[in-house]
Design a protein that fits this description.
By secondary structure, the protein is mainly alpha-helical. The chain has 23 helices and no strands.
Length: 371
């Protein structure tokens, strides 16, 4: 007698499974799980195609605990029965779905994006834990998940972000400062994304503009010094490659920055402070022209510059040397300001808001200076 063909055997096996009581189905399923595990290191395409239909029938008849064990076994395979794989990965029970969502290399990008859209947070978190997450999946997770999903993606080094994903994260960062911090501190976040994040941080406020109608006319007031001319965007673009290169090789130091200040190379000076402190160019420009010294001292402190370099910058920023009182106040701020406090304040954009007021009492009451 000739042996039945695989197709005939499969039909007969499916019919037999359909008539099996649940207890026998469970025993059959355990045997198949053992077979899959034993065949882990051998070509499995024929095997998985043969058992796919059987497994689908069995998954409808066994308890969730058996499905969990099946998911764990399938998650280890590079070639797995696709219909069964997709059914289990999209299962409404996270205990069944998550082993596959975390580890299975047999799930396609389309499968993962679809599940990220249709299922809940536990399944989404499981996908966020994968070794590699393609941009299409990342976009689906950000779109249909909350801030917890965004944070999980950002903290996973294997996540790949598209321009669309970065735009969505920036929008989420406006509502959640934790997303801002996590993305800004991620090593491979592009510079333009970091600058946008810091400039739109939830804590940032626009500088306060005085109401001209509320200011009484000055009596015999000395003419205010002309505001220093700031470099153009093109100047900064030309300066940045050299500044970044100097920083990469450890030569963007006190001596270099001091030279920029003395020579009046404002594009180099502003760009250097931006690179060293992590503050956007716009923020450094603001504190450089601000009448009060505190913001600029804070930026210098965040840049790890010493007091001599800081004083040189203060003395050469607008053509007028600071008075003795101003120098003493600046030195007190510099010596009492914690490095960690200044870096945190500068990087999250608070410096722009805090230097936007002309009220000295407000400046001294702010938490930026540790007195």
């Amino acid at each position: 007698m000739m042996a039945n063909s695989p197709a005939v055997s499969l039909v007969e096996l499916e019919d037999a499974v359909a008539a099996c009581p649940p207890e026998r189905c469970a025993r059959i399923l355990e045997g198949i799980v053992g077979l899959l595990a034993a065949s882990r290191d051998r070509p499995q395409d024929m095997l998985v195609n043969m058992v796919d239909g059987v497994l689908l029938c069995l998954t409808e008849k066994v308890a969730p605990s058996a499905l969990v064990r099946l998911s764990e076994a399938l998650a280890e395979l590079t070639a797995a029965p696709q219909k069964t794989l997709r059914r289990l990965a999209s299962h409404e029970d996270p205990d069944v779905a998550c082993p596959l969502l975390i580890k299975s290399q047999a799930l396609s990008t389309i499968d993962l994006a679809t599940i990220a859209t249709a299922r809940g947070e536990r399944q989404q978190i499981a996908i966020c834990a994968r070794d590699t997450i393609e941009p299409t999946v990342t976009e689906a997770l950000i779109k249909h998940g909350g801030s917890r999903i965004c944070l999980a993606l950002i903290k996973n080094p294997g996540t790949r972000f598209s321009g669309t994903a970065y735009a969505a994260l920036i929008a989420e960062a406006v509502r959640d400062d934790e997303v801002t911090k996590a993305l800004a501190l991620r090593p491979d976040t592009p510079d333009h994304v970091t600058r946008t994040l810091l400039s739109t941080s939830p804590g940032e406020k626009p500088p306060v503009k005085p109401d001209a109608s509320a200011v009484p006319p000055a009596q015999d007031a000395a003419p205010a010094p002309a505001a220093p001319r700031l470099p153009s965007p093109a100047d900064y673009a030309n300066a940045r490659p050299e500044i970044v290169a100097l920083n990469r090789v450890g030569k963007l130091n006190d001596s270099t920055v001091n030279r920029f200040a003395i020579r009046g190379e404002k594009a180099n000076l502003v760009t250097a402070l931006s690179v060293l402190s992590g503050a956007p160019i716009e923020i450094v420009e603001h504190v450089l022209v601000d009448g009060d010294c505190e913001g600029l001292v804070m930026a210098c402190r965040a840049s790890r510059l010493n007091w001599a370099t800081t004083l040189t910058i203060l003395s050469n920023r607008n053509g007028a040397r600071p008075s003795v009182g101003e120098r003493e106040r600046a030195r007190t701020i510099f010596e009492t300001l914690l490095l960690s406090t200044s870096q945190w304040t500068v990087r999250w954009g608070q410096i722009a808001a805090s230097t936007g007021t002309s009220d000295p009492g407000h400046r001294n009451a702010r938490g930026g200076v540790n007195r």
